[in-house]
Please model this.
Amino acid sequence: MKSFRGIKLEKTLLYSLHVYFHKRKVLMRRF
Model:
């Protein structure tokens, strides 16, 4: 079983990746 901290870290990484790709899409649409 994973530790709570590990799960929290994974979720944070996934969320930041999601935000990063969304921002890239918006930027590419603009230029």
Observations:
- The radius of gyration is 14 Å.
- The helical segments are 4-30.
- The chain has one domain: 1-31.
